[in-house]
Amino acid sequence: MTKSTKHWLVWGQYLAVAAAYAAFYRVAFQLSVSHWELTVGFRLCCLLLVPLRLWPALALGEFLPVMENALTRIDVFGSAWALAVCVPQIVVCMAGMKPLRRWGSLRMPDGTIRMGYVIVATLCCALLSTLRDTAALWAALSSSSTETAPWSTLSIGFSSYLLGGYLGGLTVAPAILAIQDRMQVEVSLRALWHSPLFRDVCVWLLPVLTVLTLQANAATALGEQQLLRLAMILPMVSMSWRYGWHGAAVAGSAASLAMALTSDSMRDPAVIYCQAALALSFSASLLLGGRPQPAAQPLLQEG
After folding, report:
1. Bridge-partner residues for 33, per DSSP?
2. Distance CA 275, CA 233 (A)
3. Under CATH, to which class is 13-182 assigned?
4. In this structure, are residues 302 and 243 in contact, taking their beta carbons and an 8 Å threshold?
5. What pTM does this model have?
6. Which of 262, 261, 255 is nearest to 278 (CA)?
7. Where are the domains of the chain?
8. What is the pLDDT of residues 114-155, one digit of tens each?
9. Counting runs of H as helices and runs of E as strands, what totals does the chain give?
């Protein structure tokens, strides 16, 4: 292989990574709201798993959709806002994640995931993404009024972005890491069906969360609706006790999705309170989720 061919292969790899990231980012962005940002979870997974040499491709992949968003709304929010949102959040997160990756490893020498490391990384990405979003909000508010942006609005936006980023990170990253852990060894469909974790997810976790979601959406009293939302935390605790942090990751992601489906308005305080309780319980379940699961453990086995 000639030097020129190798050069083009490297550039082709960068462009492929950038295109794939941009496509998945757009999907995550469409599914996100300010208090449930799946984009942070997707970004966190890439910064944890993608080699450092490919990070420039990730930055390019996120720059393309955010630039498009800025250009289409510059007349509404102003040029200062457009400049702020043109800075990809992943670039801001890299400032915190690069020292973290150089400081320590995601896995222990035996291949076990360092869950404390994942929680710190999630907090890091959520906080840095929140700072960038709050700066963009300040620019938008300032351009729409001759007065200084109200601090009450900025504080509400900051807390909403921080919770949304942290819960979005927990919703995506631990589940992806759990699947990666369990798929280290090739498995068959028959073995997957006989997996206790898979059967519990299909037989009772998803049906229970579906019933709770339907009941919460049908509830007329706010107190009843809040209790049904908080009840979604219980299956996650049960799965954590049964399967360790793998069970907590899968059940927590499902509970987070179910709770998000009970909201029909932006920044609903009632939903945000329950999401805060879920985020706290989710973190505790991941950290205290029983025995560590070895990386080479196949999907079909428990133990």
Report:
1. 36
2. 10
3. mainly alpha
4. yes
5. 0.88
6. 255
7. 13-182, 186-303
8. 999 999 999 999 999 999 999 988 888 877 665 555 667 788
9. 14, 0
